[in-house]
Design goal:
7-stranded mixed sheet; 7 strands
């Protein structure tokens, strides 16, 4: 397989982008990969769709806004294929990230590029450490995290926590 690597960028979630993000989720992602279990089963319901739209709308204020979180749509080769977030934690200088991608975007190097881009966003915002969490069975995510220098450790309940220093920043001792 000698496929060209997709061009990946993070896109601010304005109204047209939010519409594209919701369409991508409905067309090619399981609701449980994108939203919390708001309704029984794993089907797209009006409650889940509304939650998804509200989640991104409420985060437009960024890390310094009321939610303490920023989100971006993930664009690969010009199409919206998921989202990524940065969220402040209770620890100064520490942010966490989370990513979801459509099924069609997986296995093409998109996640690796998104994680590299969000590391840059964390550095721009002065973060010293980036954290992520995934399922122990998510071999693709764990490979990407480890390849990008994250230290991974079991968190119980089948979860793995990952952490790494943000490049280009230095953290003060104890921070």
């Amino acid at each position: 397989m000698n496929h060209a690597q997709p061009v990946v960028r993070l896109r601010a979630v304005d109204e047209p982008t939010l519409s594209a993000l919701v369409r991508a989720a409905l067309a090619d992602a399981a609701p449980g990969e994108v939203t919390p279990p708001l309704t029984p089963g794993d089907t797209w319901t009006p409650e889940r769709i509304s939650w998804l739209a509200d989640f991104h709308t409420d985060r437009r204020g960024g890390l310094d806004g009321p939610a303490g979180e920023s989100t971006w749509a993930v664009e690969a080769d010009g199409a919206v294929v998921g989202s990524v977030r940065l969220k402040r934690t209770a620890e100064p200088g520490v942010v966490e990230t989370g990513i979801w991608l459509t099924r069609g975007a997986r296995g093409r190097g998109v996640g690796r590029r998104v994680l590299a881009a969000v590391l840059e966003e964390a550095a721009i915002r002065g973060a010293g450490e980036l954290r992520a969490e995934t399922r122990a069975g998510n071999a693709a995510a764990l490979t990407v995290l480890r390849d990008l220098g994250f230290e991974c450790s079991g968190a119980g309940d089948g979860r793995v926590r990952a952490r790494r220093e943000v490049p280009g920043t230095t953290r003060a001792p104890g921070r």
